Structures are given as structure tokens and as C-alpha cells.
What we know:
By secondary structure, the protein is mostly helical. It has one domain (2-176). 93% of the residues lie in helices and 0% in strands. It contains four helices and no strands. The radius of gyration is 66 Å and the shape is rod-shaped.
Amino acid sequence: MTMLAQFAETASNSNVFTALGIDWQQLLFQIVGFVILVILMAKFVYPVLIKSVDERQSKIEEGLKAARDAEDNAVKVQAEIDAQLADARKTARDIVATAKEESDNMLAGANKKAKVQAERTIATAREEISKEVEAAKRGLESTVVELVADATTKVVEKTYSASDDQKVISAALKEAK
């Protein structure tokens, strides 16, 4: 409290500035200097500083915009890639299905050709067997005719001409059939 009493006593005797220990001339000089400093800074420093801050802000905004655009493009490209992959998978499935169908058709055609060839071979073999059987029958028939002629000659003891023998044997075979 003594300090407050001392201040009140000094304030009543003289100037308030002096009581507070402030030199008003120096205060005025400092205020003028501060105003000049603010004016100089406002004219020369702040515009450059504001300009660099604005440029930095615009670069940041451009970077953010570019990042958003890149993200949007990435999403679009990913969608296109997914669509192309789906299309490629579908095409691959179609190719595999077509190849399987073609191979099945080729196998069926080969089986059909093999079956036709086997049937031809069997038919040819049957024809050959039939011809051989006919040839064997003719050979057997001529052998039988000779045997019958020999047997008849021995039984009858008379020899007929070959044409007579043939007529008699043919007649006998026709009766036998």
C-alpha cells in the first residue's frame, strides 16, 4: 500500500507520465517510429509476404485439385481395367468353349469317318469272302463232278464223253438241290 500512496502523492505534485516513469518525448518518438515501420512494412514487406502466401496457397490448391483429378482418373481407369478384364475373361471363355466344340466336332467327324471306313473294310472283306466261297463252291463242284464221273465210270464201266458226263451230272445235281 505504500507504493500506491507514493504514486498518488507523485501524481498530484506533477505530471502522470513522470509519475509512471515515462518520458513523453521518447514515447512520441517511439510511436512515430512504430507508425513509420508499420507503413514501410505495409508498403514493401506485407505485399511480398502476402503474395508468397497466396502463391503457396494456390499451389496447395492446385496440388489438391490435381490429386483429386488423379484419384478420379484412377477410379475411371480402374473401372476401365475391370471392364476390359471382364471382357477378356468372357472372350477367353468363348474361345475355350469354341475350341472344345470344334474338338468335339472333329472327334465326331473322325469317329464317323473311322466307322465308315470300318464298314467299307467289312463290306470289302465280305465281298472277298463271298467271292472266295463262290470260287471254293465252283472248285468243289468241279471236283465233285470229276469224282462222280469217275465213280459212274467205275460203276457203269462205260465211259461217256465229257459233254455227256456233264449233262448227266448237272441233271443229278439239280435233282439233289
